[in-house]
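Throughout our pipeline, every protein is held as a single compact record rather than as scattered files. The remainder of this section carries one protein's record, kept here as part of the documentation.

===
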Amino acid sequence: MDLGIAGKWAIVCAGSRGLGRGCAEALAEEGVSLVLNARSPGPLEEAAAAIRARGVEVRTVACDITTDAGRAAVVAACPEPDILITNAGGPPPGMWSDWGRAEWQAAIEANMLTPILLMTALLPGMCERGWGRVVNITSQSVRAPIPQLGLSNAARAGLTGFVAGTARQVAARGVIINNLLPGIHATDRADALDRPLAEREGITLEEARARRAATIPAGRYGTAGEFGRVCAFLCSQHVGFIVGQNILIDGGATNLTL
């Protein structure tokens, strides 16, 4: 299927590895040029070089997207993007009693306010031009809270509420906003969640992964590549009637009827 987005420009946040990298690669396969953001210059430039080999232009902005300065630098590198992919690392797991004001502020800044402020900066131009796509990478915990991920549950739920209203205000202008809700994928984030189990149970990381995979109906972790291709479809010309949705991509792990 031709997604109809060749020649467009996308900002991809946290795009040097993991799910962000998967999204960047899938968009590049469709002929989309990229502004790629990540914190670490080395991995960022390595990712950019690999993606440029696909024949698209890639600009890099090494910065912390959760800061005002970082967001300003990314927007300056591409002030009129057609596509925005918001993404930031999730906060650490723990117990409700572990978190004070500083931990809550960091989670809200990264996983709620950063995507909201990026949309606030870029949606007016998309609306004026009559076309735009925004995909926010959130979490399966938005649909079914994960107890040890309370910081993520709360911050991403706030973002989801913002998108629910905003997506319906801009859809008539040709701007489509949706959220992608990943379950466990084979990324560094999965390792960070599996490692405490391995240490607590005295097992290897591979055994911890196998235990978690056994709880997923698909019987495995997802891949960044398949996640990225779903993201690319949500950026396509074919999704003009999919507005403000929260799309699970979790191998069936979230046990819901509706």
